[in-house]
Design goal:
single chain; 334 residues; alpha/beta; 17 helices
Length: 334
């Protein structure tokens, strides 16, 4: 099914004129939305703890961080950019009671609305603008005259003008320069979670670790294993991003391309696809969301244990040493 794509010419900033937008949280997405909207002529206030790193950054960028309650009271449009797991508590404690009929509640991801961990009142517009890129890219592309494509959705149109507000928001952060794709909270949320889990983060991380283990267990030097299953990934991904699989295959050797066709289907086979279908089913049913929320409610024991386990994986240790040899990568430690 074709998806409708809109641009600057298809909307305007008019829906935000004379209104105050409160960006809740000044993290990755928050700092980009707040600054881009302000640079677009929109009145923006920020809610963040003033003494935190993000609060101090907001001050450096010319904002005076407020409490969530105060920001919502002063706003016409509230944009929640906090982590998914934190949003429901903040909504119940600091946002819900301060919402007024005619206001707009905005999200940059569909998780909490789609899975009903946040249920806004009937008189409030509920919209989403989700840039398809990290916040620093949303900001850098905007300041360079471009913009990151955005997904736009309207969940609740109490005023009859929810789309206009969402489109103004998307244009204000630069999305209209490259394209704003109309979708739904459901479609954005479920495809985003699936992509993260099955391919981009979960699938890729597991492939890197497994490939590294196979090579090192077979006696190959860990340094060579790292280069072949991790370091060179960026070279391949950059080619795919620029021109798809065809351009990547055009750019690599015939040996590599033949190996792609010969071996790829053995690694990701019918059984793998069936597992992916089950992953999608768990996302669609809300099973994953419940598992995530339950772990968060207990203090994230599973999350933290897995993070610590992978932090000490051999591919991470040898990778740290090799990245130190390549200063042009601007290596970082977390």
């Amino acid at each position: 099914m074709a998806i409708e794509t809109l641009y600057d010419k298809d909307g305007s900033l008019d829906a935000l004129k004379g209104k105050t937008v409160a960006v809740i949280g000044y993290g990755s997405q928050g700092h980009a939305h707040a600054q881009n909207l302000r640079d677009s002529g929109v009145t923006v206030i920020v809610a963040n703890r003033p003494d935190s790193a993000n609060g101090k950054l907001a001050k450096e960028h010319g904002f005076d961080p407020l409490s969530v309650e105060d920001a919502v009271k002063k706003a016409d449009v509230v944009i929640a950019t906090l982590p998914d797991e934190v949003q429901p508590d903040v909504y119940e404690k600091s946002i819900k009671a301060n919402l007024r009929p005619g206001m707009t509640l905005g999200f940059t991801h569909g998780f909490n609305i789609h899975f009903k961990t946040i249920v806004p009142p009937e008189g409030v517009d509920v919209v989403m603008v989700a840039p398809k890129g990290p916040g620093h890219t949303v900001r850098s592309e905007f300041t360079g005259g471009g913009g990151v494509p955005c997904l736009l959705a309207v969940h609740q149109d109490a005023s009859g003008k929810a789309f206009d507000t969402a489109m103004a928001w998307a244009i204000g952060v630069g999305g209209g320069r490259s394209g704003v794709l109309k979708t739904s909270f459901k479609n954005e949320c479920e495809t985003d979670l699936f992509g993260e889990q099955a391919v981009l983060c979960g699938g890729l991380s597991a492939m890197i670790k497994a490939g590294f283990e196979v090579l090192t267990e077979a006696g190959y030097p860990p340094e060579l294993a790292y280069f072949e299953v991790c370091h060179e990934l960026k070279l391949i991904i950059d080619l795919i991003i620029r021109g798809g699989l065809n351009y990547m295959r055009y750019s690599i050797s015939n040996t590599a391309e033949f190996g792609d066709y010969h071996t790829g289907p053995k690694i990701v086979n019918a059984q793998t696809k069936e597992t992916m279908k089950q992953v999608l089913a768990d996302i669609q049913s809300g099973k994953f969301a419940k598992t995530f929320r339950d772990d968060y409610a207990k203090g994230f024991p599973v999350f933290k244990a897995n993070r610590e386990k992978d932090r000490n994986h051999p591919v991470e240790k040898v990778g740290k040493e090799l990245r130190a040899m390549m200063p042009w990568l601007k290596p970082v430690e977390v």
